[in-house]
Write a structure and sequence with these properties.
There is one protein chain. The chain is α/β, with parallel strands linked by helices and 790 residues long. The chain folds into 5 domains: 21-129 and 262-288, MutS, DNA mismatch repair protein, Chain A, domain 3; 150-256, MutS, DNA mismatch repair protein, Chain A, domain 3 (Orthogonal Bundle); 295-511, P-loop containing nucleotide triphosphate hydrolases (Rossmann fold, 3-Layer(aba) Sandwich); 584-704, SH3 type barrels, CATH 2.30.30.30; 711-789, Ribosomal Protein S8, Chain: A, domain 1, CATH 3.30.1370.110. It is 53% helix and 16% strand. It is built from 24 helices and 25 strands. The protein has a 6-stranded mixed β-sheet, sandwiched between helices. A 5-stranded antiparallel β-sheet has the order 20-19-18-17-21, with no helix packed on it. β22 (714-716), α23 and β23 (743-747) form a beta-alpha-beta unit.
Length: 790
Amino acid sequence: MNKRALKVLEYDKILNILSSFAQSQTAKDEIMSLVPSADEYEINKMLDETDQGTIVLFKNGNIPMAPFKDIRNSIKRASINSILTLSEFLAVRDFLKIIWDLIKYFEKLENSEIIVPAIHELFDSLDPLVQLRKSIENAILSEDEISDSASPELFRIRREINRKNAQIREKLNSMISSSAYQKHLQDNIITIRQDRYVIPVKQESRGSVPGIVHDQSSSGATLFIEPMAIVELNNNIRTLRMEESREIEKILLELTILVGDNEISLKFNYDIMVHLDVVFAKSRYALEINGSRPRSSQNKVLDLKQCRHPLIPKDQVVASDIRIGKDYSVLIVTGPNTGGKTVALKTTGLLSLMYQTGMFIPVKEDSEICVFKSVYADIGDEQSIEQSLSTFSSHMSNIVKIVEEADENSLVLFDELGAGTDPVEGAALAMSILDFLYNKGSYCMVTTHYSELKQYALSTAGMENASVEFDVNTLSPTYRLTIGIPGKSNAFEISARLGLNKNIIENANMYLTEDTLKFEDVIKDIQENQKKAARELEDIEKIKKENSSLTEYLEIEKRKLEENKQKIKDKAREEALEIITEAKEAASSIIKEMQSIKSKNIKDSFKELEHLRKNLKEKEDDIYSQFESKAIGKKSVAKQLKNLKPGDDVLIKSMNQKAIVVSKPDKDGNTLVEAGIMKLRVHLSDLIKVEPEENKKTYSTKSVAKKAAAIKSSIDVRGMTSEDVIMDVEKYLDDATLANLKVVTIVHGKGTGVLRKTIQDLLKRNRNVEDFRLGGYNEGGDGATIVTLK
C-alpha cells in the first residue's frame, strides 16, 4: 500500500483508536503495525474472525481477557536456566490464569450452541498448563515473598528460624525487664541492627553490658549492643538465613526449569492470546461504530450504502451512498467549498483500507466492496484560491508517481485535480490524466470546481458526475452526496448571502457565457427536482413502513383469531364427546335392563320394556336438545340420513338391532325398516347407517360407547421392540378409528430413529390412516408422530 495514501487518509488514527480496545501492549503494537492486505483469502479470514468475535460479544458478553504482560523474554531466559524473578513468575501465573478463564468461557460458549468456527479454532488451541500454574501458585505469594510450603526443607528452616527468634526475644525481654540492666539502657526496647537483635545502651554504661557494638546513635549517647548471651543464637539465625536463601534459589531454579520445559507451549499460547486480543479489539470497535461487513464483490463494484466517515462523530456526520463500478469507473464530485467533497473522498479511501485490514466499516449491511492492490491519494489541506506554483509542483510530483504506478487494481483519489494553475490548462490537464487512468482500468474519484470536468463527465463513457448539496439559505453544507448530478459552486449565491454588492454580482454574470449560464440553470433545476423526488421517496418509505407495521399487526390479530377459533372448536368437540359418552353409558344401562327383562318370562314384561323404551327415547331427545344449542341438532342428523334408500343397512339405536330400509324417509323424517320378521316405522334420528355385513363388521352402540370412553388420544411406545410396537400400534389405530377419533399421537421418542421409521412404515400401509407428520415445537418434536385418521 502507498504510504502517502495511508497518512493522507488518516489510517494511523483508525489504528490508534483500534489499539485502545486491546488489552496487551503486544497486541496494541501489532495493531499499530497493521497494513491493509490485497489477498482476498487473508482479508476474508480476518473478517470471519471479526464477524464471529462480534457474535460472541453480542450473545455471550465480554470475554474475560484481562491485561497481560509480555512474557516472551522471561520464557527465553527460562529456556537457558537463567533464574526468573518473582515478578516474572507471577506474570507467567497471571497469563495462565487468564487462559484458564478463557477456556471456561469458551466451554460456556459451546454449551450455548453459538457456531463460530474461526474463534473455536483459536480457543481450542490454548493449553492451560494447569500443573505449571499450580506449581507457581503454591510456591510464590507475591513479588517479594515465597510460600513456606514451597518445599518441605524451606518449611523446616523457617520453622527453626521462628523458634530461634522466639528464644532471642524471650532472653532480651528478661534482660530489659531486669532492674540490673534497666539503669544502663537508654530505652526498654529491642531493635535490629545489621540483621541482629540488639538493645540500646547508654554510652557511659558500655562496660556494664558485655557484648558486641553494632551501631550508635547520631549523638553518640546510645550504643546498640548485641549482648553476649544471644550472640550464639543470632549466629544460628544467620546460618539458617543462608540455608533459607540457598533453598529459595533451589526452588526458583526448579520453577525456572519447569517454565523452560514448557517453552514451546507458552510461546504458542502467547501468540494465540495476542491474536485473540487483536481479533476482539476489532470486534469491540465494530460494535462501537455500529459497523457491518459488506459483501465481497466478484464484479469489481464499490457500492457503499449509507457510509459514514469513522473519525467524525455519529451525530455530526451525514450518511451518503458512494458507488464506483459497473457503468463507470471515474466519479467526478463537484460542489461548493466546505460542502463535503473532500470528506466523501477520504471516506471512500479510508473504508477500503479498513475493510482490507479485516475491520467492519460503518455502512449498511447490503453494501458491496472490492479489493484493491493499491490505494493512491493526492489530497491537500490547502483550500485557498491562491495556491503558489510550488504547491502545484508538489501535487504534480505526487500525481506523476500515481499515474506511473496505478493499474487496473488501483483506487486513485484526487482532491481538486488540476487546481493551482491556469483554470483552462488545469482543466485540460485533469481530463487528460483521467483519460489515461481510465484506459489503464484504474478506479478514480475526483473532486473539482471546473465546469469543464462536469461537462466532460456528462459526455464521456465510463465517467459519472456526483455532487454535494449546499443550503444557500443557511450557507451551510448538508454533506449529502448525490450520484448522477453535477454540483453547482454557488459562488454568486454565497457571495450575495454574505452581503456582496448586487451590482458586482450582476456584472459578474455578464462575464459568463450564455452556454455556461444555461448549463448552471439546468444543474439547478435538476438538483431541485432531485430534492423534491427525494422528499417524495422519503414520504413513500414512511407510508410503506407504516403499512408494513399495520400488516404485521393484522397478521398477529388474524393468528390470535384463528387460535381462539380452534380453541372454541376443540372445546365444543370435548363437550360433545362428553355428552355422547354419558348418553351411550345411559343407553347401555337401559338396554341391559331390557335384555334382562326379555330373558324373564314375566307377565308384565312388555309394559316394563315399553317404559324403558320411553326412558331411552326421552334420553335421546334430551341429548339432541343439548346438541341443538351447539349447532349439532336432530335436524342436522336427519339431514345427513335423508339420502337413505331401500336396501340400505342400518342400526336401530334404541333397540340395538340391525335392520334394512324398506322405504325412503317421509317429510317428517320417518322411514319404514325391516328388523327380522318385524316391520317398524322409525325416525332417522334413531338410525345409524352401517356397512353391509360382507364388507364391514358391525359394532354395537354398547361396544362403540365403551371404546370411545376407554381409548386415549395418544399411545406411548418408548422402550418397546419393533415387533411389539407393530402389534400395539395397529390395534390402537383400529380402536381409535372405531372410537371415531380423528387425530392421535404416537410417542416413540428420538433415540436412534429405529422406532420412528418402523412406525412410519406401518402408517404408510394402514388403511385407516389419512395422513401423518412429526410433532411440532409443543407436540413433542421429532419424538412424536401426529396421525390423522380417515
